[in-house]
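I am writing to request your help with a piece of structural work I have in hand. Here, with my thanks, is the record as I have it:
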Amino acid sequence: MSMNIDLGDPQPKQLEVAMAKALHVGFGGARGGGKSWFIRFNAKGMAATYPGIRQLIIRKTYPELRENHIRILVPETLGYAKYKDKDKELTFNNGSVVRFMYCDNDNDADRLQGAEFDIIYFDEATQLTEYQLQTLTACLRGVNDFPKHIYYTCNPGGVGHSYIKRIFIDKNYKDEEDPNDYEFIQSLVDDNQKLLEADPKYRKRLEALPYKQRKAWLDGDWDIFEGQFFEEFVDDPEHYAKDDQRWTHVIEPFNIPSHWNIYRSYDWGYAKPFSCGWWAIDEEGVMYRILELYGCTGEADEGVKWTPDKQFEEISKIEREHPLLKGRQITDGVADPACWNKETGISVMDTAAKYGIYFSKGDNKRLAGWMQMHYRFQFDENGYPRMYIFNTCKNFIRTIPLLMYSESPSKIEDLDTTQEDHIADETRYMCMTRPIEPLKPIEQETILDDPLNQFRKRS
């Protein structure tokens, strides 16, 4: 039977993605760009063009997979393909196969090991973790001449936000990653004229969204997204300079005045990263994160597996030799109370003491600690916060903006603890050592009648 499947009428951006040559192709970045439509269009076209090709379409949950792809593709390919719900496979008359898979957790990703596909589609890729994305990517293989591609349709936000942003938006590649293998094609709602013709008010609805959602879903802004825990955190290089430091939390390093006190904060980790931060406190109680030691391999949330001895040996060396700390007295330290646990016979703090490193037990009230961080991130009417971060503290700057709220109904005010939250933890311990009040909203004086302009002159 002929495979003259109706592919529909693709938009220019969708055709651009279909013609992309890169191994990894990102597509989207905002709502309404026609991402799911492209997956169905391309899957049908590749199945018809390359008899025997194997393709895989993945979403986080089965209901999403069914509603966005299976219930649409099955009738669209009627007469050319048969769907087996047990196997979640659409098999075409020419031997081509499109398989559907949901991936709600790491076990779902692991169960596909050993399978082979020529093309993989991650629909709403940011809803999957980096581990899930990389594990399933390994299924792209096969001894044949079929084209090999991995497509990632995506919007800002979600647990995979940082990974997708790194490889497609920031283009920050690791040594083993070839930049030529990656291509990102942005598609905003204005690139999908068919949608706007069918639903003329769709753009207006996006424009009416709250600021965060509007920036992400309409403008495709990857620096702010719905669900972001510390949405107020600002890293603006234009205000780094010491004579400015307004409307930014990240600033350039400077020499710490000798009369400022220095503190350290610490969160234990082994298979997960450990984190040690050093803070200077000025006369007004403003905190400056001046230095950090973060035990990460370079892979997100993967620890270097240093023993406590190794960690505190390095911390001691830094305090003796680093220009910002050399010759300075560390006023105090604060750490996770779990570090005093003696279940193994010697606690982490016992080891720290061997190197002359001492801590007080941190106040581990999570919500109170997060609020203290929120308060310190607040800007006053002149644009000054009560916590600054030296721009050399790269891991603070990397991890804090990516933290998201928990999806658990019982923890809606807490952050998602499955994320890389170690720097956030030791920062909240530090903030809880000197709690502050939130800034009061700035109230403008209401002037009802001022014919002589007296109030305005006085102000």
The chain has two domains: 12-217, 237-432. Residues 12-217 form a domain with the Rossmann fold fold (CATH 3.40.50.300).
